[in-house]
Amino acid sequence: EVQLQASGGGLVQPGGSLRLSCAASGFTFSMYAMNWQRQAPGKALEWVSSISAGGQSTVYLDSVKGRFTISRDDATNTLYLQMNSLKPEDTAVYFCATQGRKGQGTQVTVSS
Questions:
Q1: CA-only gyration radius of the chain, Å
Q2: Cα(43)–Cα(31) distance, integer angstroms
Q3: Which of 50, 57, 59, 95 is geometrically suited to a Cys-Cys bond with 105, CB 3.0 to 4.6 A?
Q4: For the chain, which ranges sit under pLDDT 50?
């Protein structure tokens, strides 16, 4: 069974940074592309970033390009999202997802 658990969220001031982690289990992590998604209050789920199996290819939502970096550690089955220069509009619950499934999210709040 695919299990995904995001962590690392919190309250941060505009311009600050956070690093999200996602612990994955129940499947062969290294063989699958992984994704980060987010859902802001009252809004639809939004794709944020993806990384290919092996990590050679990454793609980003335009609004986070140059500020967010997705990465993976296949040795520990962990997905990361480094978020810099955070803005209030980045406030959302962040989820990791793969194979059509998403796990429990972590809240990110950007506010002064």
A1: 13
A2: 31
A3: 95
A4: none
